[in-house]
């Protein structure tokens, strides 16, 4: 396999629209890298440039030691799995898997051995004599993965491969793909993977590292734990995590323990935060994850009081929605600790865990609470 490097890569269309703005990204040999972001963030465009399906209008893409900007897709040592599977409808599964090797005029013995190995890894041996129309969505996706795997490419590219599956199948296929990646790594055949998705659950559960994109820019590249615990900016903080982080305009002043004024309410949020701040006063965007607040009675010290406007029973937990000022705050409360007598229109308060508070500069969106 090989590492992958993007150096100041740009994509400008004929209309003058700039879709990708000089991004830099390194994917290590054998790494599972996920590109994630909202629709229109250019993650698929970036993947298509790596694949050679879109031209690069600036910068350099390197696979291993080779600059591939001007190479056709077939010469790049990549294999791609698409959202729509792209199986040949008139070919049975066996031929779909082996077709790429036949085009290379590989010996039939090698083709048969590779087909049997790949079908065994993906547990699709019983499907080899079926046509694509006879497959379920999950089966078709496994065949598509097998068709890529059989080529032993330098880099695997996945473009929203699970988006057409139902929730249960998506969860199953997530596990299959990550297990396959780990198995190849354990066998000394590490697979370098670039995986595009808009689904943060896929990103957080599959990626060794995650590249979060917005409007053709890279916002942060990090492992899942770092993205969740130490978001570099307000966009990443709001995009990563379910439910999304509570974010609200506030005013910061530091007199010992930092003090936040939000919607006319003032709270102290822990002396430990002062050591992490890169400035001590002025306007900020206050951030706290719904899992990191405690629901307390109105009037409790260092808590923000609001009005309940929705209660979502999720089974093992409850999402409590409060309006505080002009902002909707969410608290995630374990079901066995939730006061089920609460109802819409009641007042309640949220006390943030001071060690889990994030503060962002409203002009730059950068996290000013990560330390110097």
From TrEMBL:
Enzyme class: hydrolase
Gene Ontology MF term list: ABC-type maltose transporter activity; ATP binding; ATP hydrolysis activity
InterPro entries: AAA+_ATPase, ABC_transporter-like_ATP-bd, ABC_transporter-like_CS, ABC_transpr_MalK-like, ABC_transpr_MalK/UgpC-like, Mo/tungstate-bd_C_term_dom, NA-bd_OB-fold, P-loop_NTPase
CDD domains assigned to the protein according to its UniProt record, in alphabetical order: ABC_MalK_N (cd03301)
GO cellular component: a single term: maltose transport complex
Keyword terms: ATP-binding, Hydrolase, Nucleotide-binding, Transport
Positions in coiled-coil regions: none
Transmembrane segments: none
Enzyme Commission designation: 3.6.3.19
Domain ABC transporter: 4-240
Recorded family membership: Belongs to the ABC transporter superfamily.
Protein name: Maltose/maltodextrin import ATP-binding protein MalK
Source organism per UniProt: Flavimaricola marinus
Gene responsible for this protein: malK_4
């Amino acid at each position: 396999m090989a590492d992958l490097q993007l150096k100041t890569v740009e994509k400008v269309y004929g209309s003058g629209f700039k879709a990708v703005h000089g991004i830099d990204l390194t994917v290590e040999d054998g790494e599972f890298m996920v590109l994630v972001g909202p629709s229109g963030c250019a993650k698929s465009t970036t993947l298509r440039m790596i694949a050679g399906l879109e031209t690069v209008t600036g910068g350099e893409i390197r696979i291993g030691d080779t600059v591939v900007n001007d190479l056709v897709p077939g010469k790049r040592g990549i294999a791609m799995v698409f959202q729509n599977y792209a199986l040949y409808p008139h070919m049975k599964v066996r031929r779909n898997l082996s077709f790429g090797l036949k085009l290379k005029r590989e010996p039939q013995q090698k083709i048969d051995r590779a087909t049997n190995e790949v079908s065994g890894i993906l547990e699709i041996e019983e499907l080899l004599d079926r046509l694509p129309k006879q497959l379920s969505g999950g089966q078709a996706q496994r065949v598509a993965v097998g068709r890529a795997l059989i080529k032993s490419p330098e880099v695997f590219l996945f473009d929203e491969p699970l988006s057409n599956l139902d929730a249960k199948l998506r969860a199953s296929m997530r596990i299959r793909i990550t297990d396959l990646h780990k198995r190849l790594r354990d066998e000394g055949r590490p697979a370098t993977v670039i995986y595009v998705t808009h689904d943060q659950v896929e990103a957080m559960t599959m990626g060794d590292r995650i590249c979060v994109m917005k409007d053709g820019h890279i916002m942060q590249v990090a492992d899942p734990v770092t993205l969740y615990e130490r978001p570099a900016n307000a966009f990443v903080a709001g995009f990563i995590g379910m439910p999304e982080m509570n974010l609200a305009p506030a005013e910061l002043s530091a007199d010992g323990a930092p003090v936040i004024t939000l919607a006319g309410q003032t709270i102290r949020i822990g002396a430990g935060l002062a050591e992490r701040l890169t400035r001590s006063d002025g306007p900020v965007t206050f951030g706290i994850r719904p899992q990191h607040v405690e629901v307390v009675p109105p009037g409790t010290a260092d808590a923000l009081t609001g009005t309940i406007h929705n209660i979502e029973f999720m089974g093992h937990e409850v999402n409590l929605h409060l309006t505080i000022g002009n902002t909707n705050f969410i608290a995630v409360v374990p079901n066995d600790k939730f006061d089920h007598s609460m109802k819409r229109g009641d007042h309640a308060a949220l006390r943030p865990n001071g060690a889990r508070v994030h503060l962002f500069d409203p002009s730059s969106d950068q996290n000013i609470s990560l330390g110097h």
